[in-house]
Amino acid sequence: MIYTMIVAGIFAFAYMFFWDSSFNSFESVRSNVVNLDRKINADRLYLQANPESKIVQLDKEILITNKKMLAHKDNNAYIKSKIETISSLIYDERTWGEYLDSISKNAQKYHVKIKAFSNTYAQTNSAFGHILDISISATANYKNTFLFINSLEKSELVVDIHDFNIKAQNSLNSDLNISVWGITY
User: Average per-residue pLDDT in the chain?
Assistant: First the structure.
């Protein structure tokens, strides 16, 4: 009887010790099986709504879009690096002052009489655009007027003659509106 009780006690102790660990292991495996079953059912529903051909087509479209996006990123990076390397575009009062001085030198060179000359900074909130507006009213003969205008455009700066009015009277009277473009940070 004592032996039976000892064996029963050992059996009961071993059963209780292994019962908890085996029950926890069972519960964990059961929850994994339930989660996998839910995922499989969700995948079945997705595959019913989207056949394999549609999935392959969407994958191809995604690859094409990614390639285009990479090409655009490369192009944008290239353009940005090239714009940043053009030092004449970056806001620099000294360079623009030299350009304003070159206007009067070219007027003397081509015998153009400047009647009025003004320059103002453009009010812009963008990082790139026309920054300096120049207005010139001048008088000269036909050939010298066009040589003068050509000299204004032959600059390292990005110069835009966006409005001009030329009238012929005793000589050619020119009203020029020029914009110098640049980058501000």
Answer: 83
